[in-house]
Design goal:
Chitinase A, domain 3, 1 helix, Thrombin, subunit H, 2 domains, elongated, four-stranded antiparallel β-sheet, mainly beta, five-stranded antiparallel β-sheet
């Protein structure tokens, strides 16, 4: 009787993630398998759910809608700051990733999306927010 992955199990999976247009945005195939505990919240809910019920050696392709992936794109997560407020040694470029320190001490990753003479636009949305994601998932083992 093959064991099947269930909540609470630590699993190792190989995966390839694709966008709607087929662009691969991440893959573990050239690396070690991804290890995580189902139900721990360490990865997106749709991916956790997809692994439940799989047995070692099983593969599947799962379409994970936005709301079970990184959530919708939120305009309020985009902020424009005065260039004077940024460190003077920073040479901001579009696409650059920065980390902002929130007053609570939380570190928030942001991406520069626009640079003008006087302002910089920062986007704190996850780069995959608003996207439906397709994952090819292979369950390597249940630890």
């Amino acid at each position: 009787m093959m064991s099947r992955a269930k909540t609470g199990d630590t699993v190792r999976v190989h995966y390839t993630g694709k966008l709607d247009d087929g662009t691969v945005f991440d893959s573990s195939v050239e690396r070690d398998p991804l290890e995580f505990t189902i139900g721990s919240g360490a990865i997106i809910p749709g991916f956790e759910q997809a692994v439940i019920g799989m047995s070692p050696g099983d593969s599947k392709t799962e379409l994970i809608p936005t709301d079970r992936a990184y959530g919708p794109y939120q305009e309020e997560m985009v902020l424009t700051v005065d260039r004077q407020q940024m460190p003077s040694e920073l040479q901001p470029e579009v696409g650059q990733q920065l980390q902002l320190q929130h007053p609570t001490g939380e570190v928030i990753p942001v991406i520069i999306t626009e640079v003008s003479h006087s302002t910089i636009t920062l986007d704190a949305n996850h780069p995959l927010a608003g996207e439906d994601l397709t994952f090819d998932i292979s369950l390597v083992e249940i630890a």
